[in-house]
Give the backbone structure.
Amino acid sequence: MKRNSRSSLNYQQIATYDDIPAALWFRVSDAPAESIYPQHAHAWGEFIYSFNGVLEVNIDQINYLTPPPYGLWLPPNLKHSGLNRTQVTHCTLYVHENLCQDLPQHAGILMTNAFVPAILEHLRCSTLPDHEPEHLRILQVLLDQLKYAQILGSYLPSSKHPALIEILDFFHQHPDDSTSLKDLARQLNMTERTLARYSQKELGMSLNEWRQRLKVMNAMSMLNTNKTVESIALDLGYANSSAFISMFKRWMNLTPDQFRKLYKS
């Protein structure tokens, strides 16, 4: 099992925001590949949404990932850190703690309706100053929409087991890899049954399910670009687009093309 020798400890560190200028504040950021946000906490809530790429946020050793159209809600005063394996363009809606009463009291992925990405894209392209009444009204509409969003757990659980950490990191670095679980287990000097038991205990799911979830998340990010479905299928290790389309529809209840039309920025 070949692994990238570059450790996340060597990633470029990005400054965090320690104050916000208004009760509701919207900001768009371009984060380079191999960069991190060090652990920090704010006295306000944050809704984080990635336009392109996948931002990973770690909370108490649990990784929350945010590919479009998923967003991540962080309640006030929650310690967290961020990791960008690839270049990521994301936005953050900062919400003063006095406005967080009707929002979830714990972190989680928010599955919003298609209206929310449309609002975020409008804000991303807007040239209105932050203090303009029209801009503030749009932020309030966005906040109202988030109150009704469905909150999910961590879509892609992490593990503390050394062997699983190695495998999951390998999957992240090589989403097109098709090594069987039997061969992976052998490379780690354990049986396939033992590896399956560790996976179920640590992740709450099989490694096959975890790997498919990762492929879906990578696909969602790539579908927000101009890549063809065929090209994405090949990038994710599928011999043809039909197998990829079938897998994606099974998880998302949409074909890749339907997803692209619904959520593409």
